[in-house]
Amino acid sequence: MTESTILIVDDDAVMQLLIEHVLTMEGHTVHVAATGDEAVEIASRETPDLILLDLMLDRESGIEVAERLRAGAARDADIVVLSGREIAADDALLEKARVAGTIRKPFDPATLCTQIRALLPNRE
Amino acid sequence: MSVIDRLTLENLRTLGDAVVLQLTEAFSNNAPARIEQVRSGLASGDLEAVRRSCHSLKSTAAAVGGLPLAETARRIEAAASAGRVAEVQELVPELEGCFDLTLLELRQYIDEAAGGIP
Fold first, then answer.
1. pLDDT by residue (tens digit) across B42-61?
2. What is the pTM of this model?
3. How many Cβ pairs closer than 8 A exist between chain A and B?
4. With an 8 Å Cβ cutoff, is B55 touching chain A?
5. B1 lies in a domain?
6. What is the total count of domains within chain B?
7. CATH number of the CATH domain containing B38
8. Residues in chain A closer than 8 A to B11 (CB atoms)
9. How does DSSP assign chain A, residue by residue?
10. Chain A from 26 to 55: CB within 8 A of any B CB
11. Subunit contact A13:B19, Cβ cutoff 8 A
12. How many domains, chain A?
């Protein structure tokens, strides 16, 4: 079983807790950031394999944070955005930030597990 | 009619009863601030603040099984996004009432499940 380091970037305490528990139970090392600044700081220090990034943070756009992460702290990490079903992100912007996929909110724990496993193909 | 989807809560219990308690407590602690942001945003004419608060509330409520609250938040988010002030004004009392009921039912769920949840 391959353990990954995953960074959650979401400013909502409930979503942070839910995702953190699911990923921890799956055996991953999990870090949590509530802002873009925190995300950049943690990504610089922990070099996550995967970043789950809320598309609509309180004070900034997830795409902007993705671009900041790509500019330095997380050049090679997979970035996946978390988004409500009605949010249609600009595909060109997602592509520019090399976003690997989208996980739709809300989700139940089993669905999130399945999606994370699919994003981490090395995991057995 | 219940304002809590018990299947959502039962799915969360696969993470452990303590996690359900943490999630419902986080909702109880954080959602009131979102409701207040909706009220103050509406009072000051800041529909963008209303929209953002309802966007967040929508996801949070759905995560703990508050589906009617999530749906009301979604409708306000859409109305605020389109600048439909009268519709937002009409829906905010519904949001507040639904929020109170959601908190009440979540507490009842925790109490009922007290045998499994410390």
1. 999 999 999 999 999 999 99
2. 0.89
3. 57
4. yes
5. no
6. 1
7. 1.20.120.160
8. 108-110
9. ----EEEEE-S-HHHHHHHHHHHHHTT-EEEEESSHHHHHHHHHHH--SEEEEESB-SSSBHHHHHHHIIIIITSSSEEEEEEETT----HHHHHHTTEEEEEEES--HHHHHHHHHHH-TT--
10. none
11. no
12. 1
